[in-house]
Every structure is written in C-alpha cells, then in structure tokens.
Design goal:
Layout: E1 6-8, H1 12-36, H2 50-75, H3 85-90, H4 92-96, H5 111-134, H6 145-175, H7 179-185, E2 187-189, H8 190-196, H9 198-211
Antiparallel strand pairs: 1-2
C-alpha cells in the first residue's frame, strides 16, 4: 500500500529473523542464568525440564549464532565506521538528552548502534567457540579439563555481557519512539528518518529520485 509519509526501514526477512532471534535468545539466556545463579534455577523450566534444558540449550545457542550471521551479512556494511561518526561522538550529550538541533549526518545506524552491533557480534563468536569446547555430548572430550573449565568460565562471562548489551538495546529501542514499530511493521515516518538518521534519509530520497520512484512506493 502506498504511503508517501513512510520509508522502508526493515524488510520482512530481516524482521522475521530478528523476532525469531529474540525468542531463541531468551530461551538460551534464561536457561543459562538458571545454572549461573542458583536462586534462578527455576528458569531451567523454560524448556520443560532441567534435563531437557541442558540438551536444548546448546542447540538453541547455535541457532542464535546462525541467525546473527544472517543479520551480520545483511547489516555489516551499514555498521562500518565513517568520519561522520565523530559528529555523533562530539554531540553524544545532546543525543542522550534527546536534542536534535545539530545535523549529525547519521547513516542508517548511528555510532552508538555500530558499537553495539560489533560488540554483540564479538561476544556471540566468543560464546560459540567456548560453547563448542564445553559441549559435553560432542566436543569437550577432545580438550583437556583445564581448557574446558576455562571455556565454561569465559562462556558464562560472555553470556552475561551479551545479556547486558541486549538489555541496553531493548532500553534504547523503547526510548527512541518509533524504533520498535519499525521492527514490527518495517516502516518509519519520513519525519523520524530525517530527525534520527538524516544522512540515511537523504540517501533514500536521492535513490527514489534517481530511480524515478514516487515517495512511499519504493520496496
């Protein structure tokens, strides 16, 4: 349906991957927390029984990694750092105060989102490697016990770190009005795009003009 006031922010495949990732991540996170903190042992019932949680936790962890690989392929080129990102860092106080007077020349993602993106990708790689080393049913027998113990420790630390980043991601998505609806519907208003991602808005507008596409029709 044509809407001249809307811009495509996230395509259906990206949104479907994101929400599938959300479900898998929370299943993995809750079961992981049940072993890390004894007081949260009841969370292991997220998979039905504690025994089933131990069986399925690593499989869902691999699923999280593969889903993030897809998102990495889709979004990494938007998250490469550029000179204009310095404007965001220089005006970060105004950004946090929700002031939008300065033109920050922000692309599809701002510098803070880029840091979050690369941090999440680094931690998920660490979780995959350490998780495979500690995966008793298939791989841990190939490694010395001290290596497995170190892998379990680092896996737990990386897991907590990733959870904290995701909590931050959720908070910021709720804080910036329009972000959640963009991942639900795929669209943002032109006013939102111009306010929060001015350079990206200009690029999309230029693409529409060069392709001869009417505003709101570009898929």
């Amino acid at each position: 349906m044509r809407n001249e006031n809307k811009i495509v922010r996230n395509r259906f495949s990206e949104r479907a991957c994101h929400w599938t990732l959300v479900v898998c991540f929370f299943m993995v996170a809750m079961s992981g927390l049940s072993w890390f903190f004894p007081s949260l042992s009841w969370l292991s019932s997220v998979f039905g029984t504690p025994q089933l949680a131990r069986e399925l936790h690593p499989f869902f962890g691999v699923a999280v990694f593969l889903l993030l690989v897809y998102l990495f392929v889709r979004f990494f080129h938007h998250n490469l750092f550029e000179k204009t990102d310095m404007l965001w860092f220089k005006n970060v106080k105004g950004v946090l105060m929700n002031e939008h007077g300065a033109k920050l020349r922000i692309g599809k993602y701002n510098a803070g989102q880029k840091i979050l993106f690369w941090s999440i990708m680094a931690l998920i790689c660490a979780l995959l490697i350490t998780g495979l080393v500690a995966w008793r049913a298939y791989f841990s027998g190939y490694f010395p016990i001290p290596v497995v113990r170190f892998a379990l420790l680092f896996h737990a630390l990386a897991g907590v770190g990733l959870m904290l980043l995701i909590i931050g991601h959720i908070y910021l998505a709720l804080w910036v009005k329009g972000s959640v609806s963009a991942m639900l519907t795929g669209y943002v208003s032109r006013a939102w795009a111009k306010q929060h991602h001015d350079r990206w808005y200009d690029e999309v507008s230029e693409d529409e003009k060069s392709l001869g596409v009417a505003p709101g029709d570009r898929k």
